[in-house]
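Re: the 255-residue chain
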Amino acid sequence: MTGNLKGKTALVTGGSRGIGAAVVRRLARDGAAVAIGYRAEADAAEGIAAEITEAGGAAVAVQGDVSAPEDVRRVVDESADRLGGLDILVSCAGIEHFGALETLTPEDFDRIYHTNVRGQLLATQHAVRHMGEGGRVVLTSSVSARRSFLHHTLYASSKAAVEAMVLNLAPELGAQGITVNAIAPGGTATDMAAGAAPNYFRGQENVDMAAELKKAVSLGRLARPAEIAAAIAFLVSDDASYVTGRPSAADGGMR
């Protein structure tokens, strides 16, 4: 567990599954001590922490719901306390939504925006209190912020809000020597993506996913979570010291 992040501390929200779990493993492999933020998957989070510790790294699991403001503060502060500081925040916690305009409710709006937007903003607000110069923040957007899909308005707009946040936080955090960026993944082989896949193809059943991906994506396949984690690992490294305020697409050349 040595690499270009040796001596750094990181919090990854949504770190018990999918892209978040891949990010945890990658940052640990690169030498960072990592706090695994999770909402409900305690066994998975603790299992990843044990795996990293047994391999010679440092990891802790911290429970909290990013849609609850008091939980966000506690998760950040507890992570910083247990790791002895905080240099990196990677916010991976998020939820998907498809729904026609006439079906949307205020409760739907609150559920999506409290997690995908407010949760990421508050995590940033609390994390930067612990950071000094060289701090890194990476939030999660999506290619959906810039592409249209049927019945995807609520989710896509929440991800567009994230991109607006990093653009406008960049000068404020830049004055403190902290960079803030967004990662915008395309289709990625996770359980969340698998459940939502038919919705991306207008609700069709029995979609030939391989054929559709060859038409829509230059590389002709879904991303592996580790590939998204690799892009994030660059954004939190010293090599990305002059990259801030921008979304970075990791979409396989989506057309």
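DSSP finds eight helices and seven strands in the chain.
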